[in-house]
Design goal:
Strand content: 15-25%
Distance between the termini: 41 Å
Number of strands: 9
Order of helices and strands: HHEHEEEEEEEHEHH
Structural class: alpha/beta
Helix content: 40-55%
Strand order of the largest sheet: 2-4-5-9-6
Radius of gyration: 42 Å
Oligomer: single chain
Number of helices: 6
Length: 314
């Protein structure tokens, strides 16, 4: 009884196709690769979101600088007090205040970079007419060695009206103070470095960057630069990460489809060969076209025998 096609190709319950194990092994490999692609693309998506949030934060910072930096100055007590911290929304807002400098309490902010190297910010406590202390960053001096206070260009003595732009205090440095030098613009640490009581009535969480003063000082320090409004590359980085995520998924799909097309052609060839030969390929039988070539050779021999018999009968 001739073998049916399902039995010939391992379709019976007792037979096991020689192609089943390679197929299962290939499937496991594709599953592992798919999991890796999903993990990597997900990571890229989150990295893109992180860069996007950094872009949004930078845009908000730029908008605040543009809105506040050149705004009209307001009175000191409009935005500052000794009991409530300054609002972050008021960073870079100009204010005017009257009082006098405490030059002998000058502190230096050390090791800050500059276009031509490193140097010091000159921080001078300013006592307002209401008795509140405000730290004013009067400018920059270059050099690696800290000068004596008497060698620094001093402000005018006596009553002065100053205009400053507000900044938030920096977090207190864990290194504290070294003489009259500090590592951060923190009101309490600057007062300590200047020999003043850090518990003195002072602004809460804010200091000022000098814009102008009346009367003007005899000599000016190097003015601090205009704040940077470069948006940086966060947005382009975000899109790059998202393109990487989409690209990995697309490439995985393309590779899988190509593999499927190649596997379909191979299986069709195997099934055609097995059906033609009536048996599955074995170690001594070619996997593709072996049965077909044998059948064609037998047909050619039969045709030759028929032609010879016809010639003999003539």
């Amino acid at each position: 009884m001739p073998t049916t096609a399902p039995e010939a190709h391992g379709g019976s319950t007792g037979a096991r196709s020689p192609y089943a194990e390679p197929v299962r092994r290939s499937l496991r490999q594709w599953v592992v690769l798919g999991v890796i692609v999903v993990l990597m693309s997900t990571t890229c998506v989150f990295l893109g979101r992180w860069q996007w949030h950094r872009h949004e934060a930078r845009q908000a910072e730029i908008a605040q600088i543009e809105d506040n930096y050149n705004a009209e100055p307001v009175a000191f007590d409009t935005l500052l007090s000794t009991t409530h911290p300054m609002s972050p929304a008021d960073v870079w807002r100009p204010i005017t205040v009257a009082g006098h400098y405490l030059v002998d309490a000058t502190a230096l902010l050390r090791n800050r970079p500059w276009s031509d190297g490193a140097g010091f910010h000159v921080l001078v406590p300013f006592e307002t007419d209401t008795g509140t202390m405000l730290i004013i960053d009067r400018g920059f001096i270059t050099g690696l060695d800290a000068p004596e206070v008497g060698q620094i260009a001093a402000p005018a003595t006596g009553p002065v009206q100053v205009t400053v732009r507000l900044r938030l205090d920096e977090p207190a440095s864990t290194r504290g103070t070294v003489g009259n030098q500090v590592y951060a613009i923190n009101t309490a640490q600057v007062l300590t470095a200047g020999g003043l009581d850090p518990r003195s009535p002072a602004t809460t969480g804010a200091y000022g960057v000098l814009v102008s003063e009346v009367p003007a000082a005899a000599a000016n320090l190097i003015a601090l630069p205009v704040p940077d409004t470069d948006p940086r590359s966060h947005l382009s980085y975000a899109f790059q990460w998202w393109v990487f995520a989409a690209g990995m998924v697309v490439m995985f799909v393309i590779v899988v489809r190509r593999e499927q097309r190649g596997r379909r052609v191979t299986l069709d060839d195997i099934l055609t060969t097995v059906t033609s030969s009536g048996d599955e390929p074995g170690p001594n039988r070619p996997a593709w076209g072996g049965g077909s070539r044998t059948r064609d050779r037998h047909a050619d021999e039969t045709d030759e025998d028929s032609q010879i018999e016809t010639q003999l009968r003539r």
